[in-house]
Amino acid sequence: MGTASGPRRVGIAGFEHETNTFRSGSTPLADVTIRRGDELLVERGRRTYAGGMFDGIDEIGATAVPLVIAGAQPSGPLEREAYLGIRDELVASIVAAELDAVVLQLHGAAVAEGVDDVEADLGAAMRAAVGSEVAVVGSLDLHANLTSATLAPYDALTCVKYYPHTDMYDRGREAVQWLGRWFAGERFATHVERLPWLLMPTATDVAGPAAALELCDAAEREPGVLDATFVHGFPLADGPAVGASVLVTAVEGVADPAAVASRLAGRIWARRGEFEVELHDPATAVALALEAARDVAIGRGPVVLAETSDNPGGGGVGDGTHLLRALLGAGATGLFGSVLDPASASAAHAAGVGATITVSLGGRLDPTSGPPIEATAEVLALSDGRYELRGVGWQIDLGASALMRIGAMDVVVTSASQQVFDDGPFTIHGVDVRTAPLVAVKSANHFRAYYGRIARAIVPVLGPGLSAQTTTLPWERVQRPIWPLDPDTTYPDTSYPDTSYPAP
Ligand SMILES: [Zn+2]
C-alpha cells in the first residue's frame, strides 16, 4: 500500500445522495453525475468538500490522487444496479491507486433499492478491499441518518455543522487533518448516539440548533475530543436509520466518545421544543409578506417567501404551484424562483423574448404539486440556465430557462430540478433581486446564506409537497416510537435500537 518512502498517497473519492423515500419512482444511473480523475481538479480552490480535501492534502505534505466522485440531486431511492455499479467502481479505483489513505465525500442519507444505509454498505465494501492498513475517513452532510453500522467501516467521519452548509470546505479539510494525525500514529474512537427524533430541516441560527452548536463546541474543548456534532438527520426517509443523532470523534484512549455523545444527546433532547420554526400556509404567508413589504419601518430589501414544502434540495419535485397560485390570487408584484416545467421553458424559447404564450405551468410531477397554473405569459428573458453559485463555486445548470410575467409576478421557469440558493436564477435573466418588493424561492434553508443578508423579512411557507412536515407522511418502516410522530416519546429509551444492516 503506497510507497515505503516519498509522500503519502491520499485518494479523493465520494458518493453523495440525499434520498427522499416518499418520492415515487427510483433514481436511475442516468441521473447520477460521475466525475473521474482529472475532472475532479476543478474542485481545487472551491469552497466545497473536495476543495477542502485538496488543500488539506497539500497541508499535510501528501499527494492527492483524485479518483471518482458520484452524486445526484435529491430524489427517490437509487436503482439497485446503479448503486452497486458505482460502489464497485469506487472500490476498484481505490484498490488500483495503491493508497495510504482515502478521504470520501459522503452525504449520509443515501438509500438504494434493498440497501437502507448506503454509506454503511459502501464503507464495508471499501474496508474489505483495502484492509486495516489504509486509513478511510470522510465527510458527511448535516442531514445524515447515522447508526453505528454507518460508522463502523470508517476510521472517522467529519460532519457539517451549519445549515446553510457554509462549512463544507472546512469539514473536507478537517477530515484530511485527521489523516495527518493517523499517519503520525494516532487512532480514533467514534460514537453515534441516536435520538428518536425526526427533525424537519432547521437553520442553525435559530434558538435550539444554536444551543446545540454551543454545547458541542464546549465538548470539543475537552481533552481528546476532536469533534462533537449534533447531526440533524434527513427526516424524509422511511427506514430504520432515520433520525437525528450526536456524532463524537475522540483520540483513542484519551476520551470516551460514547459518554460525551450521550451527555450531549440528553441536553439537546431536553431543548427540542426550541427547534420549532413557525411556518405559514401559502395564503397566510402571502398576506404576511405583503404587509411586511408595505412596512418601511422594518428595513430595506425584498421580503423573501420560502416554499419549504416543495424544496428540490430535500426531494421536493419543484413544480408545485401552491405558493405561486396564492401570490397571483393576491395580485402580488415580485419574483418567483422557480417552477420546473421543461415544456413551458421550451415554448418560451421557441416563441422568443417579447412574445406572449399560453402556459399550463407546473403541477404535473406529483399529486401534492397542485393543479397547473393556466395563464397567459409574456416572455421577458431566456437563458441556458447556467451560473456559478456565489461563494462556493459550484456550477449550477437549470437547463433551458425563461423568465415570464404572469399577472404581476415574474417567474423563472426551468428545465432541470434545483433548489434556489442565491440570486443566480434571476441574474441570468437580467433581474436584480434587491430591487424587487418580494422574492419567492423554493428552498428550505440554504437560501438564507444569500437572502438572509439582503431580505428585510423572511416568511417560511408550508403547503402541500414532498418536503413538507413529517407528521402527515405515510410512515411504515421507521422505528417507533419517534418524536414528533409519537408525542410521548422519551429519551433515553432502551427500546430504541441502534440498527445494523446486512450487506445487499
Ligand atoms: Zn444538507
From TrEMBL:
Stretch list, region Disordered: 484-504
Extent of Low complexity compositional bias: 486-504
Domain Microcystin LR degradation protein MlrC C-terminal: 305-477
Microcystin LR degradation protein MlrC N-terminal domain sequence ranges: 9-289
Record protein name field: Unannotated protein
Biological source species: freshwater metagenome
